[in-house]
Design a protein that fits this description.
heterodimer; A: MetI-like fold; B: 306 residues; mainly alpha; 16 helices
């Protein structure tokens, strides 16, 4: 086990190298560069070719891609992600600033997804083909198919504009003293919008996994022993049914990262997502690469965690 | 029929047995799949819905006679009425027309993007599964790398750099979307490869390419078909999200995603629900319908279910 984790940890930097090299090439091969996005067209017309070249040289954009990538990599290893082309700030500062909100949003969403999804899935599986089960199944199908941005708009429409229960955007009420309650109130709608898809798919997997396990013979044996239903469900059934759910949750994290980008943009939450969207609009390559690196690390680490949890939950698995 | 059976019986086969064999119609896999698929009510409903909107999209100029692109500020934000069934958007374009024309965008992005993914998945999955060893190792590590790339972020980054357009969206979604299917196909081929008929083909000197194309793939492709169906739904969702954020299909070309983008202003969101609810509902229903078709196909192709 320890060896397996060690091997996987060694693999992470290698995979990251692959991901970043691929993305770096992708981003830089494209026609156009940050200069064209940075300088407004009016000013551009007055500049000579030499002026533009000088600007490109100043940013190092006249070097070949492999050279630039190696340079970027060297700096990353020293903990330096470079400077934003657009904002006069180091990339690491921009990312750390956004990270807090994004991580809070993602972590809360993961907790909601896991708890609500598993709970509803079990309820559904314990009373199969009842009206409750049918309702939950119908809801989960719609949840999986629901585009998160459309759902977010509906939530704002109903929850903020019609009912006035929750604020429409941001994380703090302007002018109000900062408080945890205020922040949580701002988080409710984004959290629901971000969690609905994942919750729906966890519900579906939990339901089918539980149903499969409940028809196993050892469940009949447990009943024959006279164990209480509650013990059977919790100890014998759910423990075994949880394996595919762990895999699903692990796979869900990359999706969550993309979802956070959309949700942060709609609700104007300052986070990695909105930083990335700004960077993309301005072709701010260093910030884009920083965000990609971060999302790569998040995904790889969460995959590893999922696999390790899997092994802990299932003693038959030996790595 | 009668002549045949008497011919055979003269050749020494027991007549009764021959009669049974000839009398039983052979059910081809395609017919069997269709028979099972038809019993899945939700899947059939999904199929009918998709066919319906496909026809609407193709016949868009007839179904929606109003111009989907031309703006008319004097008619901006009209509520639904006789001339504009679903009202008009903030620049006076007919919402019904735009919703109908956007079917073309969504369905073609879904189909083309997944077509690209399936093509890559088939080539790489077949090579990895059939040859194994170093080839397999290399292809699967590449798959791992691409799989860990968080889809939406990278697709956005790439599209923002090469320029948002429907073709770029299709290609980028397609190029990044093959990993799951390649893994699936590889696994399937690993098991089919060990079957006797492959050994038989190899022993009579059939070429590798021919074995892969004619013997391996047809026997390994069923799960891929199911996965591809779900991928179409995923691609449509991705396109909608990209267009919503301004990294996909750009206005004035109507796409359900960019139609929703106009609702990001709070006052319009509140006061003019007719122009943002229809495209949102269309995304939801289309994705739902395709997912039902995928479920139906999975049940119909699964040899374990009766």
């Amino acid at each position: 086990m320890r060896q397996y984790i060690l091997r996987r940890l060694i693999l992470i930097p290698i995979l990251l190298l692959g991901i970043t090299a691929l993305d770096y090439t992708f981003i830089n091969l494209a026609p156009g560069d940050p200069i064209t996005a940075m300088i407004d067209p009016q000013e551009m017309r007055q500049m000579t070719k030499e002026d533009i070249e000088r600007r490109r040289h100043a940013l190092g954009l006249d070097q070949p891609i492999p050279v630039r990538y190696t340079l970027w990599l060297k700096e990353v290893l020293r903990g330096n992600l470079g400077h934003s082309y657009v904002k006069a700030q180091p990339v690491s500062r921009l990312i750390v600033d956004g990270l807090k909100n994004t991580l809070a949003l993602m972590t809360l969403s993961l907790i909601v997804t896991t708890l609500v999804g598993i709970l509803l899935g079990i309820i559904s599986a314990l009373r199969p083909y009842s009206w409750l089960d049918y309702t939950l199944t119908a809801l989960s199908f719609s949840g999986v198919a629901m585009p998160s941005f459309f759902f977010a708009l509906i939530l704002i429409f109903v929850g903020s504009l019609k009912l006035g229960w929750f604020p429409t955007s941001g994380l703090v009420t302007p002018g109000a003293p900062p408080s945890l309650v205020d922040q949580l109130r701002h988080m409710v709608l984004p959290l629901i919008a971000l969690s609905v898809g994942g919750t729906a798919s966890v519900l579906r997997y939990t339901r089918s996994s539980m149903l499969e396990v409940l028809s196993e013979e050892y469940i009949t044996t447990a009943r024959a022993k006279g164990l209480a239903e509650r013990v059977i469900h919790a100890r014998h059934a759910f423990k075994n049914a949880s394996l595919p759910i762990i895999t699903i949750l692990g796979l869900h994290i990359p999706t969550l990262f993309g979802g956070a980008v959309i949700i942060e943009t709609i609700f104007s939450i300052p986070g990695i997502g909105s930083t990335m969207v700004d960077a993309m609009n301005n072709r701010d390559y260093p910030v884009m690469m920083g965000g990609i690196l971060l999302s790569g690390v998040t995904v790889l680490v969460s995959n590893l965690l999922a696999d390790v949890t899997y092994a802990v939950a299932d003693p038959r698995i030996r790595y | 029929m009668a002549v045949q059976s008497s011919d055979l019986s003269r050749a020494g086969a027991p007549p009764a047995l021959v009669a049974v064999q000839i009398g039983t119609p052979v059910e081809t896999p395609l017919v069997r799949t269709w028979r099972r698929f038809r019993r899945h009510r939700l899947a059939m409903a999904g199929l009918v819905f998709i066919l319906l909107i496909a026809v609407m999209g193709i016949a868009a100029p007839i179904v929606a006679p109003q111009d989907p692109i031309k703006t008319n500020l004097s008619q901006a934000l009209e509520p639904p009425n006789a001339a504009h069934w679903l009202g008009t958007d903030p620049v006076g374009r007919d919402v019904w027309s735009r919703t109908v024309y956007a079917i073309r965008i969504s369905l073609s992005v879904g189909i083309v993007a997944v077509g690209i993914s399936v093509a890559i998945a088939i080539v790489l999955g077949a090579l990895a599964g059939y040859y194994g060893g170093l080839v397999d190792m290399f292809i699967m590590r590449l798959t791992d790398i691409i799989m860990t790339i968080p889809g939406l972020v990278i697709i956005m980054a790439v599209v923002s750099v090469i320029g948002p357009s429907i073709y770029n969206v299709m290609v980028v979604i397609g190029i990044l979307g093959w990993t799951g299917m390649a893994r699936l196909l590889r696994g399937q081929i690993l098991s089919v490869r060990e079957r006797d008929f492959i050994a038989a083909a190899q022993s009579i000197g059939v070429s590798d390419a021919r074995i892969m194309a004619l013997h391996l793939l047809p026997n390994a492709v069923a799960p891929l078909l199911v996965a591809a169906t779900f991928s179409v739904a995923g691609a449509i969702l991705t396109e909608a999200a990209l267009s919503f954020l301004g990294f996909g299909v750009l206005p004035p070309t109507p796409s359900w995603g960019n139609m929703l983008n106009a609702a990001r202003s709070l006052s319009r969101l509140q006061e003019n629900p007719w122009f943002w609810v229809p495209p949102g509902m269309m995304i939801l229903l289309t994705v739902l319908a395709i997912n039902f078709i995928g479920d139906g196909l999975r049940d119909a192709l699964d040899p374990r279910t009766k």
